[in-house]
Amino acid sequence: MTASYEGVGKLGFGAMRLPLTDPDDVTAIDIEQVKAMVDEFIARGGTYVDTAFVYHNGCSEPALRQALVERYPREAFTLATKCLAWACASKEEAQACLPTSLERLGVDYIDFYLLHNVGGARTAKFDEYDMWNYVADAKERGLVRHIGFSIHDGADVLDELLTAHPNMDFVQLQVNYLDWDDPVTESARCMEVAAKHGVPVIVMEPVRGGRLANLPERGAAVLAEADPEASQASWAYRFCLDLPGVLTVLAGASSLEQMQDNMRTFQTHQPLNEQERAAIDGAIAALRSVDLIPCTNCGYCVKDCPEGVKIPVALNLLNLERQTEDRAFAKGLYSWQAAEGPASKCVQCATCEAMCPQSIPIIDRLAEAVEHFEG
C-alpha cells in the first residue's frame, strides 16, 4: 500500500501526560501552559501531535482542540489519536470512538488513527468488534488518512498481526535504548519485523515512561561524564531519531521547560558518534549491574502453567524495578501487563521451575512480584 507521510516531523508531541492545575485530578489540564507548549512545538518545526480517546480520562483531545486546532491552520499539524477497543463493552461503543474523537478535536479527519494496545488476549476484542475493517472503511470515507496500531508485545506477535493485516500503513512500537535487546519487549527485533513488512514505525516510550530522564546515579554518572551539558532525555531521543524506518519519535512533555528541551534536541541533534554510543552502552551496563533475574523469555515456563500466570512479564518488571529503582513505575505497568495472569494466581506446582533452562527459583520470584506489585 502506498501512503504519503509528507509533513510529518521527526520528533512528535505525545499528549499523554499534560501539565495539570491540580496534580490529583488528571482532567484538570493547564490549558494555558499547553498552549505555550504547542506554540514552542510548532515554532521549532514540530508537526506530529499524538493523543488518544482515553488520555487524561478523555480530556486530552478537547485540550488539544483548544490549544492547537482552534489556534493553527489545519495544514500546520498532523493529528494522531487512538481507539482502546478492548476496554469497550460493545462493538457499538468501540466504533463510536472515532466520531467522538473527531468531535472532541474539532476536525474533519484524523491523519493517523491507531487501534490502541493490540496484542495478547486484547486482540480478540478488536477482531470481535470488526475494528480492522471499520478503520479501513473510515480511511476509504476520508475520515482517516493513515491506519495502524500500537503494540507492546514481542516480535512474533507483531509479525502475525502485520501478516494478517497487510493494509496497515504504520505501526507504533516501544523503542528505547534500555529495551533494545530486552528479551520481553524486543525493540530491535520488532523494528526488524516492521522493516520486513515495509511498514514505517512511530516510536513510543523513547524515554521509557520518563525513567530514562531520571536515571539512578550509577547510570546518570556515565552520561554526565560523556557530556555534562546534555539532558538525560536528549540521549534517549537521539538514540531513536536516526534509527532506520522511524517516521517520528513521540516525546512526551508535562511542562514548557520539558518541551523546550525536547525541541532543542530535535533542532540541534546530530547522529550519535562512536564515543556517544559507547556512553549509552556504558549507561545500560551500569543500569544492569544490579542482580538481575536471568530470564530470557524463552516461554517454556508458561506452556504448562495451570493458572496462565504471566511469568516472563512479572520477572521482566522485577528487573525493570531493580534497574530504575522505581517500584511505582513498574507496578503501574504490572497492573495491565500482567492483568490476565497475575503472580498471585500461582499455585506453587513448580511445573515452571522444572522447565526453566536458567534454573530460576520462579515460585520465590513470583512471591516477590506479589509483594512488590499487588500490595
Automatic annotation (TrEMBL):
CDD domains: AKR_Fe-S_oxidoreductase. The keyword Signal does not apply. SUPFAM superfamilies: alpha-helical ferredoxin, NAD(P)-linked oxidoreductase. GO terms for molecular function: iron-sulfur cluster binding; metal ion binding. Keywords: Iron, Iron-sulfur, Metal-binding. Residues 286-315, 336-366 form the 4Fe-4S ferredoxin-type domain. It comes from the Bacteria. This is Fe-S oxidoreductase. It comes from Adlercreutzia mucosicola.
